[in-house]
Structures are given as structure tokens and as C-alpha cells.
Amino acid sequence: MNQKNTIFDCINVMVDIETTSTENNAGILSIALVPFDPQNGEFLKKAGEGAANDHLPGELAPRSFYPSLTDQFFHGAHFDSETQDWWKNKPDSVKNEIINDQRFSFYNSMQSVESFIQILRDKYVHHGDAPRILFWSQGIDFDRRILENAFERNGIEIPWKYYDWMDCRTVTTLFGIEHDRSKIVHSAYADCVNQINELIQATSHLAEK
To answer: What is the DSSP string of 14-34?
Structure first.
């Protein structure tokens, strides 16, 4: 019997990044990966911001990564002056994405992202609990291409196929869910949470079918 391959059968991970430009080789300020249940948001509701929660298996707790900006600069990352000015004009709470003392080397950060995804795959896909991992973002032409460029610059194998990526914007638009831009705070983790909430509003219609 073939295993089902709907979004409700897969491991779903919301992805968001904050960057120093919009180029393929943009410097990455932060990366957030938030596993979630697309039917009821169970993972999201139980997961505390920026940290693992005792109620969740460790591999399903959200993760945030902060690559060293200096390290990225020497790896050829693009820093756009207009984008930097844009960040400077944001509230202090938003600028925390830039001023963060938890940064690790560019390579170690990207390796940690790859390892996190591989743990999910080993735990759930290879054991037959889920057919695949789906990666969600607000559009698939920004976060994915910048992350893939970062993996390639570090000599790390890209941990997904292009067809593993799903677009939140398309799904929410199909079901008439309005994207509330007032909730965009330009924190990678917080934006993931907002995108998950909007996506769940849409997928709840599918779950009822």
C-alpha cells in the first residue's frame, strides 16, 4: 500500500531568513526553522519562542541560527547600503536580529542547519513515519535561493530538492486569507509564527474535506 503524500502526512517546516540584501549571496542575519502541524498548529502552540520546549521532542522544537557577519563578508556575502539603512531605521526590538552575540562561524551555522534537517529526515522519513519533509516560505524565490547559495559557498550539500519547497502565499491566496503585513516584525522566528498561523487558516479548509 502506497504511503500518502499530502501535507498532513509530511513533516512540515516553516523557513524564514533576514538578510543584508536581496542578492543570491546576501549576508544572512538570521535563519529560523519551525516544524509545525499544518492541521492544527500543535507544534507551534507548544513551542516557546527561540528555544526548545519540554513538551516537544528535541528534533521538533524550533531552531534559530545566527551566522557570523564578519565571516560571511570574507566569504563574499553581499551587503547592500540601502538595506543596511532600512535596518537602522527599525525599532530596537527589530535590530536585535543584527546585534546578536550568539553568532557562530558561517560554515558551522550552515552545517547546523543541514544537521537539523538531516535529524528530522533520519527520525521520521527514513523510519517510514512520513514520506518527506516539506519546506514552507512566503514565496519560494527568496529564502531558498539565498540559503542554497550559502550552502554552496561552504561546500555543504543542499539538504532538499527544489520540489520539497511550498509557497505559503499561493495557498493563503487561494483560500482568501489576507496576509497581515502589520504582524511582520522582521524577526525570522516571529515571521515564521505569523506565516504558520495564516497557513493553518487555509489548511483547515482542506482538513475538513
So the answer is: EEEEEES-SSTTBPEEEEEEE
Contact 110, 68 (CB under 8 A): no
Q: Distance (Å, rounded) from C-alpha 135 to C-alpha 46?
A: 20
pLDDT per position as a tens digit, 59-116: 778 899 999 999 999 999 999 999 888 888 887 777 776 777 779 999 999 999 999 9
170 in Cβ contact with 179 (< 8 Å)? no
- pTM of the full predicted structure? 0.88
Closest Cα to residue 191, out of 22, 32, 50, 21?
32
Report the distance separating Cα 191 and Cα 34, nearest Å: 10
CA-CA distance, 63 to 46, in Å (whole number)? 14
Determine contact, residues 152/61, Cβ cutoff 8 Å. Answer: no
3-state secondary structure of 197: helix
Q: How far is CA 19 from CA 110, 147, 176, 183, in A?
A: 14, 10, 29, 18
